[in-house]
Amino acid sequence: MPERSAKLVQLRDYLITEMPKKISHVLVTGHPQNRLPGHASFCIEFIEGESMLMLLNAKGVGVTSGSACTSRALQASHVLLAMGLPHEIAQGSLLFGLGIDNKKEDIDYVLEVLPPIVERLRQMSPLYSKFLKQGKGG
Length: 138
What we know:
With about 140 residues, the chain is mainly α. It has one domain (about 1-135): Aspartate Aminotransferase, domain 1, CATH 3.90.1150. It contains 6 helices and 3 strands, in the order αββαααβαα. The protein has a 3-stranded antiparallel beta sheet with strand order 1-2-3. It is globular. The termini are far apart.
């Protein structure tokens, strides 16, 4: 078990560290270290988690959006809302559950395929368009 946990922590920390470098306006949710070894969760602003989930699934990436108890409903996680996140940010949640069979190459693949998905969805997002028009960057 200690070896498995150490491997998962290494993969999780790699994903948590690299995701914000690849995608702007990403919030890592939860405590940076005090979390389950294979748990990495994020909120990606200006898009909905369900849209990312479907496009990632088409690329062979298994991920969920929101908490397990709301995963079948198009609702923001009540946990993220209770943490004080605004609804529009909590709606863009992605939760990665890493397992013992995952490898660094799997994380690299996610980091390769997710940024174009986010860009594509943001181009369709009225929230992102409004954000850009207000001159707040990209």
